[in-house]
């Protein structure tokens, strides 16, 4: 966006960028109108009614109920308009469509690492198709970061030990900036990247390059076996840990008498802190894997566990729960024995 040829705002490159800008300019214009009005009134009354000679006493003013009601009701109405409009935009920003393409992002000093479900992995670069909703599940491998796509008018913090998410739908092919907007250390300003929005056919051609390691879920399956998770978590449920087959989205009973819904947050916590929630009927035998695997491998393990529940309605639901701050193995992902 340019004013008199000078770039003021990033271009509007997502479906809701115009909505965010409209709300922003409305709030800005409203605040500017009242700020200027108050300033002009202060200056005018200061000049018009200034003290002209010593001993002068101003006229007594009793007040005006209609005027007081007016300056109370009008700001209230304007505030409610801002609230309603803002809530509507926020609701849209925070509810990704069910058909959104899923990508994982990991923040690390000082880079952004992206993983596609098809297996492609990128650093400080993200390829996506135009005209398709994209959901990004975000985590951090070290400190607090914040993933910001200026042209798409969306950002979200990357918090150690938990998942957050954002979504957008890019409309126009091209290249757009990625920034970290949370100070994260000495090279914070260098934590930048590029989104490359491609035509759908071009994106499919890019995907053909493929990953030699298979899909994200396939990588997770290999890790699941390498970490010996499959020796405890048997599909029959007769192992030392609970069966993970078709478990996503279900409610499990815990030894302390409480229950928990199995989502990405639960899986993450079970991998990183296996003693936090122990499934009823199992012993706390699973070791803690915190710090033993990278955040990217943790994501792969969780994606594999999700693939074991193909009919789960919450398969793509982001985890908002806490997990230990550093990534860990997933073998026992839900073991919580």
Give a nutshell description of this structure.
The chain has 337 residues and is α+β, with helices and mostly antiparallel strands.
How would you characterize this protein structure?
The protein has 337 residues and is an alpha+beta fold. Among the domains are: 101-208, Immunoglobulin-like; 216-307, Cytochrome Bc1 Complex, Chain D, domain 2 (Orthogonal Bundle), CATH 1.10.760.10. The protein is 31% helix and 21% strand. It is built from six helices and 14 strands. The protein has a five-stranded mixed sheet with strand order 5-4-3-7-10, covered by helices on one side. Helix 5 packs across helix 6 (295-307). The protein starts with a strand and ends in a 30-residue tail after the last helix.
N-end to C-end Cα span: 56 Å
By CATH, the superfamily of the domain at 101-208 comes out as Cupredoxins -  blue copper proteins
Order of helices and strands: EEHHEEEEEEEEEEHHEEHH
Largest sheet: 5 strands, mixed
What is the CA-atom radius of gyration, in angstroms? 27 Å
DSSP E strands, number? 14
For the largest beta sheet, what order do the strands appear in spatially? Answer: 5-4-3-7-10
Q: What portion of residues is helical?
A: 25-40%
The CATH architecture classification of the domain at 101-208 is Sandwich
Strand content: 15-25%
Output the CATH class name of the domain at 101-208.
Mainly Beta
Return the structural class: alpha+beta
What is the third-level CATH name, the topology of the domain at 101-208? Immunoglobulin-like
Average pLDDT taken over every residue: 84
Task: Give the overall shape, derived from the CA principal axes.
Answer: elongated
- Tally of contiguous helical segments: 6
Show unreliable segments: 314-337
């Amino acid at each position: 966006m340019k004013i008199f040829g000078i770039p003021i705002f990033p271009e509007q490159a997502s479906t809701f960028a115009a909505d965010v800008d409209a709300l922003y300019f409305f709030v800005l214009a409203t605040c500017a109108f009242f700020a200027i009005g108050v300033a002009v009134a202060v200056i005018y009354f200061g000049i018009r009614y200034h003290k002209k000679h010593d001993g002068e006493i101003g006229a007594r003013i009793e007040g005006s109920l209609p005027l007081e009601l007016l300056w109370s009701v009008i700001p209230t109405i304007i505030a409610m308009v801002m609230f309603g409009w803002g809530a509507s935009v926020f609701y849209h920003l925070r509810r990704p469509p069910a058909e959104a393409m899923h990508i994982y992002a990991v923040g690390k000093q000082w880079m952004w690492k992206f993983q596609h479900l098809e297996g492609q992995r990128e650093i400080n670069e993200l390829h996506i198709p135009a005209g398709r909703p994209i959901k990004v599940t975000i985590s951090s491998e070290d400190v607090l970061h914040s993933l910001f796509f200026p042209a798409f008018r969306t950002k979200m913090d990357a918090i150690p030990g938990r998942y957050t998410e954002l979504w957008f739908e890019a409309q126009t092919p091209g290249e757009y900036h990625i920034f970290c907007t949370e100070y994260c250390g000495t090279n914070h300003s260098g934590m930048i990247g590029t989104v490359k929005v491609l035509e759908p056919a071009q994106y499919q051609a890019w995907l053909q390059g493929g990953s030699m390691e298979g899909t994200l879920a396939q990588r997770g399956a290999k890790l699941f076996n390498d970490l010996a998770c499959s020796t405890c978590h048997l599909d029959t449920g007769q192992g030392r840990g609970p069966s993970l087959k078709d478990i996503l989205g279900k409610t499990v009973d815990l030894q302390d008498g409480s229950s928990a819904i199995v989502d990405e947050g639960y899986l993450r916590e079970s991998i990183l802190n296996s003693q936090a929630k122990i499934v009823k009927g199992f012993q706390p035998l699973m070791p803690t894997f915190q710090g033993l695997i990278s955040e990217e491998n943790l994501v792969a393990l969780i994606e594999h566990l999700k693939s074991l529940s193909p009919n789960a309605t919450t398969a793509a639901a982001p985890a908002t729960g806490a997990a230990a701050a550093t990534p860990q193995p997933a073998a026992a992902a839900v073991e919580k024995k």
